[in-house]
Amino acid sequence: MENDATDDVTAGEVPDTEAAVDAVGVTAEADHGGGLSFHPMDQFIVKPLFGDAGDPVYWYTITNATFWMLLTVACVALLLIVATRGRAIVPSRGQSVAELAYGFVHKMVEDVSGKDALVFFPYIFTLFLFILFSNFLALIPTSFSPTSHIAVTAVMAVAVFVTVTVVGFVKNGTAFLSLFWVSSAPLALRPILAVIEVISYFVRPVSHSVRLAGSIMAGHAVLKVFAGFAALVLAAPLAIFGVVAIYGLEVLVAAIQAYVFTILTCVYLKDALHPHH
C-alpha cells in the first residue's frame, strides 16, 4: 500500500514538474525569440568598470562613471595641449578647433558678464569643454554618460553657485543683497518680489543641474527605446529611422546643453559682479 501511495504521489508530481519545465521553456523562447525585452534605464547604472551591476563600489573602485570622466579629461587635454603645441601660423585642424572653442567662450564671457569677469574665463572654459566632451563621448555606442547623473551635474552647479555667491559678497559686500531688492518696482511690491528673488536664487543650482542631467538622460533613454523596437521585424524600418533622427537631435542637444550651462554660469556671474537691478 505504501508503495502504491508513493507511486501515486510521484505520478502526480511528474506532470506538474513537466508542465513547469514546459512553461519555462515557452517563456525563454518568448524572451529570446520574437518577444521584445529591453530596459532603457539600465545604461545609467553606475557599476565597477570590470564588474557587474550590484557589485560593491568603494571609494577607490574605478567605475564606468569615473572611467568616462577620466576619458573626457584626457580628450580635453589632447585638444588643448597636444593639438596646439605647434602653435602654427597656419593652424592644423586640431588647433583650429581649440582656437574656435577658446574664442567662442571668451567672447561669451566678455559679452554676458563684462570684461571684469574674464579673470574667471579659465574656470568657465573648463566647465564648457568638460560638459561638451562628456556629452559627445556619451554618443558612442555602449559608452556611459556622466552628465546624465544628477550627482555629477549637481557638483558643477553647486560649485558655480558657491563661487558666484562668494564673489558677490567679496566684491560688493552687503551691497550684493541689492540683487534681491527690486528698487524699480512699487514700494508695496518690493518685499514680495524680494522673497521671490531669494527663492529663485537658491533654486538656481537645482535648475542648473537638473536641466543638463534630464536632457541627456531623456535623449539616451529614447534612443534605447527605438533601438529596442528595431528588433521587431515589422517595426524595424520605422525604428531605425527614429534612431537616426533622435541621434541627430542628440548631437545638437549635446552641444546646446553645454552652451546653456555655460551661458547661465556667465549670467549668474554677471549678477555677482553687478548686482544692482
TrEMBL record:
**What is the protein's given name?**
ATP synthase subunit a
Identify its membrane topology class: Multi-pass membrane protein
- Its transmembrane ranges are 57-83, 117-138, 150-170, 177-203, 223-244, 251-270
Q: What does this protein do?
A: Key component of the proton channel; it plays a direct role in the translocation of protons across the membrane.
One Pfam family name from the record? Answer: ATP-synt_A
The subcellular localization recorded is:
Cell membrane; Membrane
Q: Does the keyword Transport apply?
A: yes
Per the record, the similarity remark reads:
Belongs to the ATPase A chain family.
Q: What are the protein's GO molecular function terms?
A: proton-transporting ATP synthase activity, rotational mechanism
UniProt GO cellular component terms: plasma membrane; proton-transporting ATP synthase complex
Q: Which organism is it from?
A: Jannaschia aquimarina
Q: Which domain of life is it from?
A: Bacteria
Provide this UniProt record's keywords sorted from A to Z: ATP synthesis, Cell membrane, CF(0), Hydrogen ion transport, Ion transport, Membrane, Transmembrane, Transmembrane helix, Transport
